[in-house]
Amino acid sequence: MPVQYHNFNNTLESLAKSPSGINGLDEISFGGIPKGRPTLVCGNAGCGKTLLAMEFIYRGAVQFGEPGVFITFEEKREDLIKNVASLGFDLVDLEKRNLLVIDYVKVERNEIEETGSFNLDGLFVRIGYAIDSIGAKRVVLDTIESLFAGISNHSILRAEIRRLFNWLRDKEVTVIITGEQGGGDSITRQGLEEYVSDCVIFLDHRINEQYGTRRIRIIKYRGSIHGTNEYPFIITESGISILPISTVRLDSKSTHERISTGIAGIDDMLGGKGFFRGSTILVSGTAGTGKTSVLAHFINDNCKKEEKGLYIAFEESKDQIMRNMSSVGLNLKKWEDKGLLTFYSTRPAHASLETHLAVIMKMVNELKPQSVVFDPVSSLLNITSGMQVNSVLTRLVDFLKEKNITCIMSNLTSTEGSLEKTDVAISSLVDTWILLKELENNSERNRSISILKSRGMKHSNQVRELIISDQGIETKSRQNHSGNKIVSKG
Predict the structure, then answer these.
(1) 27, 194, 315, 354: which is the annotated catalytic residue?
(2) Does residue 395 register a pLDDT over 90?
(3) Nearest-5° angle of CA 449, CA 453, CA 458?
(4) Residue 74 annotated to the active site
(5) ∠248-256-475 over CA atoms, to 5°?
(6) Which of 242, 276, 296 corresponds to the end of one domain?
(7) Is 75 designated active site?
């Protein structure tokens, strides 16, 4: 799907930009980094500066036909090639096609000194030759600290930094310069680079509750509006992915098409037609109320119609779910064998929330399912706070709605307090909310089902009994103390 950008001010002259090709970066920068100008990418160790710069060069050559020069002051050419090969970046091939020059510059002061004074004239000649040799449009300098290591005269150092940035502007190439994070209020070590750069991108790698998360923020962008928030990103086998940008707008399309819940009695409670396709459904209740069984009936019915489904399980393995659901008359393995149902079972503690989100989004993009099951989303609270879980689920819901994918999720409700709330605070996000309860009466434990809300459709106000047997799930109207049926008015 082509990227769409906001036009906040039509009176502003459009700034020329170079699309990065990096997943998500062009969205938060509204088109890419400034064309023909220097951009500073800075941050602490291990945050992904070199990888972002290399992906900018690689995507420019492969996707946009723009040759690039990568000047490295720390890693040798052979090391760089090996380090990014696992991401599918074939740098050797780009070199053979004259789309890339990698130049390792071993910085020694005596090599760039002339008549006892420090200057970068020798480096300018070297970079200029590399640019002209392939007609480069993109350049990376990695990292600027190595270039000025050991220079104690700050007046000369600052003058040469300013001269370097101006020289790069004059070459009319789009440049990324990487830099280490400074101390105090300074973004960089020297405290000047951020002022002479036209765009400053800050990367951060932090640990929160034992889980590492990388984040990106555009600190400044001369002449352009840009996203100002911190955006989480991950490094996958295909490069950097900033997640997700789908929450910027609420413009997903809605449909009037209805699909069955897979349970006739629940369909009846929803006007006899079931859910809206592309809607989000929450099934909540305490332990043992039948949440997983309700979800499994839904995905089973979808597979019967030759529609693909994705089952995300956070507490049970695939085989355990299949075994348990066979006890209520469902053969989920049959759909897996036909390629209609895919399971992804993992413990929430296996990775950070952002990593889980990235993996799920990648699976959705590759498998293209019509329905997705999450069982249960409340397990995500084991690794982080409810606010962060809510943020991830909000973005996930937006992502699925944009693709018109029906999403049904379960939530384990705490027995403490009201059952008509969720610890992950997502009740306002969902279109349909089904509440399951366990009732004890006359020495029996029975299950009940009710529809707390269902946007855009008539739905029953009854509290019905939910019966789970080896033939599946059915519902029936409960009776009052006089033996009369409770009749719905909705």
Answers:
(1) 315
(2) no
(3) 95
(4) yes
(5) 110
(6) 242
(7) no
